[in-house]
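Objective 1b: paired records.
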Amino acid sequence: MATDYYAALGVSRDAAPQEIKRAYRRLARELHPDVNPDAGDRFKEVTAAYEVLSDPEKRRLYDHGVDPRASSQGPGPGAGFDFSDIMDAFFGGGGARQTGPASRTQRGQDALIRLQVDLREVVFGSEREITIDTAIACNVCEGAGTAQGTEPETCAMCKGRGEIQSVQRSLLGQVMTSRVCPQCRGFGTTIPHPCPECSGDGRVRTRRSLTVRVPPGVETGTRIQLAGQGEVGPGAGPAGDLFVEIIEKQDPVFHREGDDLRCTVSLPMTAAALGVDIPLQTLDGEEKIHVPAGTQSGHTEVLRARGVPHLRGNGRGSLAVTIRVETPTHLNGQQRELLEQLATLRNEENPDGTALEEQSGLFSRIRDAFSGKQ
């Protein structure tokens, strides 16, 4: 066996269960990711050691040269034939087989929260402080679940085995069945004097704050995983993970389509006819948009690399600026006269409507702008 679980916890091979538990609690407080982010591998090693040594059956196997964790992961060196699996198939269980009492120290559940971000955070990323309600280890009993000065007691019903066995007669003869002990719920011990702070669970709920880094390019539904920031498990077990799901708020100016952005700029008819350079306030700052003379309503100008960054790649999308030409209304006498003169000069007093081919339509011009066609 490559791993020395006793050495990992810093206890001797004849250490009592309570000594093993105290050693694990001490190391877990020192190595937990919330306290020591760089000790992730060491924390996993200590947790694995406690998982084996806190279980009497697993510890017995380990002391005889078999690592229960390695054996449970499939055939390999030291993995032997388990005759009890055959016995269970005939005499027992019809389901998952329990081997000895269960550990009160278990991994906590994962947690999910939703975080609303605006478009600027989506484009440039941000760091947000969030507040969550979660379970942490009880600081009164340090995860033991017992009142101060007391210890768990061996279950009187199952004698510490965590299961109750019974013998029944059948056509095959005597059949032995096992079930989880109803008094200790499979733990092998009971807590007659629970901690008044956590009621014996070994953890309490509290509100805490942490910082979340939102990477550029996220979108609604993107989940950010924060390892070890979820619920602390029963008995002050390892914490689960926290998942932060992104909800993107709608921007009043820019509309997102994938990693591209779109916006619309309105221009007077005269400016569109004569051509003009207009300032546009983008997310990257002010940009000059050149509107050539004779621009039609629906014309699109494309600004490259002014969209949303690619979340899993380099570069950014584009910003498409659509020009909307406004026709003047509520003309006074002089304005109307000038327009009538213009219509006469252009021979447009009596225009006839002409149906346009699809290629010169609005959607074709937008498509051509994105594909680079002239």
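Objective 1b, second protein:
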Amino acid sequence: MEIKRGTVVRSNAGHDRGLFMAVLEVDGRSALTADGKTRTIISPKRKNLIHLSPTAAVLSDEEMESDSSLRKALRRFQAK
């Protein structure tokens, strides 16, 4: 599955393992990810693509507009 801007991914490695995040930008073999809480849109986490598992969900630009809207959009994945 292709990882692009807005894709909801699950982290497979690192201190954030198991958390769902949104991809802000893909740059070669890495992606900038944010969850709106510990990793904000202003200060995203750079993750290697092999450490991410993409889901079928893609967030809209409105859902990724602010940290609060990003947290709200990702909340439905955290409950699963």
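Strands lie at 7-11, 20-27, 30-34, 45-48, 52-58. The radius of gyration is 11 Å.
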